[in-house]
C-alpha cells in the first residue's frame, strides 16, 4: 500500500510504501534514507545465536525511538512544505521513486516501469547482444551496491553495539562514583557508621561482581565468535579436501579403465597375430609337401623311362 509520511507514522505492520512526492522530497532535503523510516521486527536486530536479549532490546528500542523522532520531524517539514507551495513561495515537488519501496510491495525492480526490451523486428543480432551485455553490467553494479550497503549496515550495527557497551561502562562508573560518594558520607556520620559501611561494602561487592560478570560475558561472546569462525574455516577446508580426493579417485578410476581397455586391445591384437602366423606356417608346410611329392613323382617317372 502506497502512502505518505503520516500514513507511515500510523503504520506499525510495515505495509505502507513511501511514494508521496512531497514525503520523498522532504527526505531528500534532510539526507534521510526512506528505508530508515520503515518499522523492523525484533528478530532483525539479532546478530548471532545466543546473543543477550538485553542488548537486542536496547538496539530495537533505540532504532524505534530514532525512527519516530525522524518521522515526527519529517511530518512537520512536509506540512510546512505544503503550506509554502500553497502560498506560491515554492514550486510543486517533482515525482521521485523510492528505490527501497520494493521490499514492501514485493517487486524486484523499481516501481516505475521502464520500456520493455527484447528482440524487436528489424534489430540485428549484434545490437541485441550489446543490450544483453549492458543489462548484465547494470545487474552486476546493482549487486555490488547492495553488498556495499549491507557491509555499511553491519559496520553501523557494530558501532552501535560498541556505543551501547561504552554507555553501559559509563553508567557502571557513574554508579561506582555515586557509591563511593555515599560511602564517604556514611563514614563522616559516626553515629551510624558501622552499619552503613557494611552495607556499602556489600553493595560495592555486588557491583564489582556484576561488572566482572558482564566482562566475562563479553569475553565469552568474543571467544564464541572466534570459535565459530574457526569451525567454519575447518569445515570449508575439509569440504575442499573431500572434493579434491573425490576428483583424484575419479581420475584414477578413469586411468585404470583406460589401462584395462589398452590391455584388452593388445591381447586381441596378439591373438590375431598368432592366428595369422599359424595360418602362414600351415601354408608353407603344405607348399613344401607338394614340392616333395612333385620331386618324388619326377624321380619315379625318370626311373620308369629308364
Question: Care to give the gist of this entry?
Answer:
6% of the residues are buried. The chain has helices at 5-10, 21-29, 53-86, 102-105, 125-188, 193-305; strands at 2-3, 17-18.
- Provide a count of the helices: 6
Biggest sheet, in brief?
2 strands, parallel
Count all strands and give the number: 2
User: What is the distance, rounded to the nearest whole angstrom, between the alpha carbons of the first and last residues?
Assistant: 134 Å
Strand content: under 5%
* Low-pLDDT runs: 95-123
Your description of this structure?
The chain has 6 helices and 2 strands. By secondary structure, it is mostly helical. It has a two-stranded parallel sheet. Strand 1 (2-3), helix 1 and strand 2 (17-18) form a beta-alpha-beta unit. The relative contact order is 0.05.
Amino acid at each position: 500500500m502506497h502512502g505518505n509520511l503520516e500514513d507511515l507514522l500510523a503504520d506499525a505492520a510495515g505495509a505502507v510504501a513511501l511514494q508521496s512526492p512531497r514525503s520523498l522530497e522532504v527526505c531528500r532535503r534532510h539526507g534521510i534514507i526512506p528505508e530508515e523510516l520503515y518499522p523492523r521486527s525484533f528478530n532483525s536486530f539479532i546478530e548471532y545465536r545466543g546473543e543477550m536479549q538485553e542488548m537486542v532490546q536496547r538496539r530495537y528500542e533505540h532504532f524505534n525511538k530514532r525512527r519516530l523522532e525522524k518521522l515526527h520531524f519529517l511530518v512537520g517539514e512536509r506540512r510546512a512544505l505544503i503550506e509554502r507551495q500553497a502560498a506560491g513561495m515554492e514550486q510543486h515537488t517533482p515525482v521521485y521513486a523510492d528505490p527501497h519501496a520494493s521490499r514492501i510491495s514485493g517487486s524486484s525492480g523499481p516501481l516505475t516501469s521502464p520500456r520493455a526490451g527484447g528482440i524487436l523486428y528489424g534489430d540485428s543480432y549484434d545490437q541485441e547482444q550489446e543490450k544483453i551485455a549492458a543489462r548484465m553490467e547494470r545487474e552486476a553494479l546493482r549487486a555490488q551496491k547492495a553488498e556495499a550497503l549491507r557491509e555499511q549496515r553491519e559496520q553501523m550495527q557494530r558501532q552501535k553495539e560498541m556505543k551501547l557497551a561504552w554507555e553501559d561502562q559509563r553508567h557502571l562508573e557513574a554508579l561506582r562514583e555515586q557509591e563511593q560518594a555515599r560511602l564517604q558520607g556514611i563514614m563522616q556520620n559516626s553515629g551510624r557508621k558501622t552499619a552503613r559501611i557494611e552495607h556499602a561494602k556489600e553493595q560495592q561487592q555486588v557491583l564489582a561482581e556484576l561488572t566482572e560478570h558482564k566482562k566475562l560475558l563479553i569475553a565469552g561472546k568474543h571467544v564464541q565468535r572466534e570459535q565459530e569462525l574457526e569451525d567454519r574455516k575447518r569445515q570449508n577446508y575439509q569440504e575442499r579436501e573431500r572434493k579434491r580426493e573425490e576428483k583424484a579417485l575419479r581420475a584414477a578410476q578413469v586411468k585404470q579403465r583406460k589401462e584395462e581397455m589398452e590391455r584388452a586391445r593388445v591381447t586381441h591384437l596378439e591373438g590375431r597375430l598368432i592366428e595369422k602366423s599359424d595360418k602362414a606356417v600351415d601354408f608353407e608346410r603344405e607348399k613344401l609337401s607338394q614340392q616333395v611329392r612333385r620331386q618324388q613323382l619326377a624321380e619315379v617317372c625318370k626311373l620308369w623311362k629308364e
